[in-house]
From TrEMBL:
SUPFAM superfamilies documented for this protein: Ribonuclease H-like
Any Pfam family hit: RVT_3
Name the UniProt record assigns to this protein: Reverse transcriptase zinc-binding domain-containing protein
InterPro entries: RNase_H-like_dom_plant, RNase_H-like_EbsB-rel, RNaseH-like_sf, RNaseH_domain, RVT-Znf
Residue ranges occupied by any Reverse transcriptase zinc-binding domain in the UniProt entry: 61-157
Annotated RNase H type-1 domain residues: 259-331
Signal sequence range: none
Gene Ontology molecular function terms on file: nucleic acid binding; RNA-DNA hybrid ribonuclease activity
Length: 383
């Protein structure tokens, strides 16, 4: 329960007696904080409340004084962390050099420093009453929980084969996380931090939007994220070679190639999946579009598109298959670029635009035929 009405100091003072309203203060904050408030003398001058920056003699805030306060009052305040300064130095150097998005690094850093608005921090400031983890519903949701011993997180790490070393009982949970992360290899580091960030993402979906939590969807999200990072890294680090235009490759005679894709609408949580089947001559021998509701993200949309491709193949009695898509999710297949998957992507857009969901019995749109023809011609013209 949020209490936004208490915004100024004067609201905590009994104006008739010029003393603290002790009952109100005890209601709003814990006993230790209340005792600190009561130790503050109340001015008898009757001046209006004003904001004062305590780290500057003038009471005015400046960037310079803010920076100085961070270095003196915050970074040097934790004697516990200073005892393990080298561990944290290695941790932060490794974290910020990791090949992942900056928002994930920032989330991990703020979580390690207990600056995330989880239920534990909100309850401590009396902004909410619920304090248990909304995912596992077992323990207090705090930074230790979100970084280490949430049963959902531990299960995710087990399913993703994250190596968790053993620690003495005296080692705190955040320091355990720091040591485990620093000792892991590059891919394990990516999985560890992406899984923690994904847990927070799905937790917020549950708390703020009421979205159902699915372990399988979360695992697919993490695997797809890690895979795409690896693909991007390999493309950037590959040795220089002459630029070769990527083209669609027809299957062998007697084999059907299925290209699938999905068009995802984030705001509506809708996804239109498409499956395009072609034989060794490049001729379209089947096509389908399908509508999915309540889709949480693009990775889930791609996974469902892959599943629809296999269902479509079974229904059409295709027995020898090659399956291609342009993003890896929960199911393994041949991952290709969007350029090679252009015909399937065009079919997904056409299905969404025309509100056609099912088999295209009368033939696919001209735009899809053109994309498929361009694929075939590019193959025929290859050098």
């Amino acid at each position: 329960m949020i209490r936004p009405n208490w915004t100024t100091i004067i609201q905590l003072i009994n104006t008739e007696t010029s003393t603290w309203d002790r009952d109100l203060v005890y209601y709003l904050v814990d006993e230790s904080t209340a005792d600190r408030i009561f130790a503050i003398p109340i001015s008898g001058s009757g001046q209006k409340d004003r904001l004062v920056w305590k780290h500057e003699g003038s009471g005015e805030y400046s960037v310079k004084s803010g920076y100085r306060a961070l270095n003196t009052d915050y970074l040097r305040d934790s004697t516990y962390r200073s005892s393990f300064g080298e561990d944290y130095k290695v941790f932060y150097n490794t974290l910020w050099s990791l090949n992942i998005l900056g928002k994930i690094k920032i989330h991990i850093s703020t979580l390690v420093n207990n600056l995330v608005p989880h239920f534990g921090n909100l309850a401590r400031r009396t902004f909410c009453a619920a304090v248990s983890c909304p995912l596992c519903k077992e323990e207090l949701e705090d930074s230790d929980h979100l970084l280490w011993y949430c049963s959902i997180l531990q299960r995710v790490w087990a399913l993703l084969t994250v190596q968790i070393p053993s620690f003495e009982d005296s080692v705190g949970h955040i320091l355990r996380f720091v040591k485990m992360f620093s000792a892991a290899d590059e891919q394990q580091k990516q999985i560890i931090v992406i899984s923690i960030w994904s847990l927070w993402f799905h937790r917020n979906k549950l708390v703020h939007e009421g979205a159902n939590f699915s372990m399988q969807e979360m695992l697919g999200f993490i695997r797809g994220y890690v895979h795409n990072i690896c693909l991007n890294f390999m493309s950037l680090c590959s040795s220089p070679r002459p630029l070769i235009k990527e083209i669609w490759r027809p299957p062998d005679p007697g084999v059907i190639k299925l290209n699938f894709d999905a068009s995802f609408l984030k705001e509506e949580k809708l996804a239109v999946t498409a499956v395009l089947a072609r034989n060794f001559t490049g001729k379209i021998v089947g096509a389908e579009t399908y509508l999915f509701n309540d889709v949480t993200d693009a990775f889930v949309a791609e996974a469902r598109a892959c599943k629809r491709a296999l269902i479509f193949a079974s229904r059409m009695y295709f027995r020898r298959l090659v399956v291609e898509g342009d993003s890896l999710t929960e199911i393994s297949y041949l991952a290709v670029t969007r350029l090679i998957n252009e015909a399937a992507y065009t079919l997904a857009l056409e299905g969404r635009r025309r509100n056609i969901y099912g088999d295209w019995l009368t033939g696919v749109p001209e735009s899809v035929q053109l994309a498929a023809l361009q694929d075939r011609l590019a193959w025929d013209r290859r050098s």
